[in-house]
Amino acid sequence: MDVAAAVNLYPSHRTKIIHLVRHAQGFHNVAIDENWTAALSEDYFDARLTPLGWEQTDALRKHVRSSGFFKTIELVITSPMSRTIQTAVGAFGGEEHSDDLNVPPLMVEDAGDSNRPAISSLNCPPFLAIEDCRESIGITPCDRRRNISEYRPLYPAIDFSMIEHDEDVLWKPDVRETDDEMAARGLKFFKWLLTRKEKEIAVVSHSGILFNSMREFGNDCDVFIQSEIREYFANAELRSIVLIDRSRIGSDSSNNFPGGIPRGLDLPVDIAIKKNPEFQKRLKSLVK
């Protein structure tokens, strides 16, 4: 691979940093690992985090803070499923909430039988729930969400306003979204991210939608980099990517400085030479 093919340059204002996170371990993960038929059981409807899943979330929280990401992330987007919401608020939320704070908590105490204290919405990014980054849709109850009206009292500071329907009208008991359909939904989601004003965003999502979306990228990369992009996500794994706007989908303004203010005569030397044949002859006569 030559240098020109191996590198790319893009204006920085046409890029965003996206921190992709798969949710921590849910009860359905454990059950399906033991017996795949558990995926069809209503016992795991909208599965929540296991105690180990909360430990994984706590470890992710420590990493987010020690790495400095917590200070630079401007928005947290979560799939509207219990396991992703719990992972998102646990990893990116504020400290423990107290009743004397004059703001709603991100999560109330013991939300979803979590046996966890309430989490504050102070001193953390805003949280937004989006349908397009949820897991494969259809057939498996673990991937069917609850009514939004059930989530709101448990997670008061999360913005659910972009979800149109209270009930889960996307999930069907007899139709399963294909991998290609999931990939198309993921690409739609990434394009939408480019329209956001925020430059650095955390997205808490699921294995299937992340894998099928990411396999659409990296065809022009070295095989090692392809594997970095396309590998399946582990529970509570965070993978940071740079999202590039090649088609002016977004509207981010540039911080570039135009230079030469006030303007004067500033024709570049190489352009001046090309425009003036006599100058070219003179220059050639000086070259030995």
Automatic annotation (TrEMBL):
CDD domains, A to Z: HP_PGM_like
SUPFAM superfamilies: Phosphoglycerate mutase-like
Gene3D superfamilies: Phosphoglycerate mutase-like
InterPro entries given in the database record: His_Pase_superF_clade-1, His_PPase_superfam, PGM_Phosphatase
One Pfam family hit: His_Phos_1
GO molecular function: phosphatase activity
Annotated Gene Ontology cellular component terms: cytoplasm
SMART domains: PGAM
Family: Belongs to the phosphoglycerate mutase family.
Protein name: Phosphoglycerate mutase-like protein 1
Chain's gene name: LOC111008016
